[in-house]
């Protein structure tokens, strides 16, 4: 590899951060400006039926205390709610509220718009190839897939 060639991980991170920044800018413009990047990263890990706080912390690679703090903020802003876990009466799940689902849908649509711009720049075949490559890498990099 040439000395001036960027590490592939850094290249992926730069693209990810660009999408993230554009998505959060769109969220703010649409009236969701009260959600922070840290809160969004935790909210993005909430499953359709809800997720336990400990799982959110593990997946976000943050402490349980930090996850609890972020979930408290999301709950105050009415993006999430805590509900009993049907599998364990002692446990609670964090679940998106209607407002949280609307925000998540909007964020997903904003990210899709960025992807479409990338596809226009790269061409559809290369974008499909990129998706395929990333799916293959996920097999060995994502313990939560």
Automatic annotation (TrEMBL):
Superkingdom of the organism of origin: Bacteria
Record PROSITE patterns: HTH_MARR_2
Native species: Nocardia aurantia
Domain HTH marR-type positions: 5-139
GO terms, molecular function: DNA-binding transcription factor activity
GO annotation (BP), single: response to stress
Gene3D superfamilies from the UniProt entry: Winged helix-like DNA-binding domain superfamily/Winged helix DNA-binding domain
SMART domains tied to this protein: HTH_MARR (SM00347)
Full protein name: HTH marR-type domain-containing protein
UniProt xrefs under InterPro entries: HTH_MarR-typ (IPR000835), MarR/SlyA-like (IPR039422), WH-like_DNA-bd_sf (IPR036388), WH_DNA-bd_sf (IPR036390)
């Amino acid at each position: 590899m040439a000395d001036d060639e960027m590490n592939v991980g850094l290249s992926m991170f730069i693209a990810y951060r660009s999408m993230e920044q554009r998505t959060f800018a769109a969220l703010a413009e649409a009236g969701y400006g009260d959600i922070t990047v840290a809160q969004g990263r935790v909210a993005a890990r909430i499953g359709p039926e809800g997720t336990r706080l400990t799982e959110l912390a593990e997946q976000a690679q943050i402490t349980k205390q930090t996850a609890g703090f972020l979930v408290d903020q999301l709950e105050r802003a009415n993006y999430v709610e805590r509900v009993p876990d049907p599998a364990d009466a002692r446990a609670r799940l964090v679940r998106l509220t209607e407002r949280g689902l609307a925000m998540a849908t909007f964020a997903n649509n904003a990210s899709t718009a960025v992807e479409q711009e990338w596809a226009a720049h790269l061409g559809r075949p290369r974008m499909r190839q990129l998706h395929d490559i990333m799916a293959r890498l996920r097999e060995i990099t994502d313990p939560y897939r």
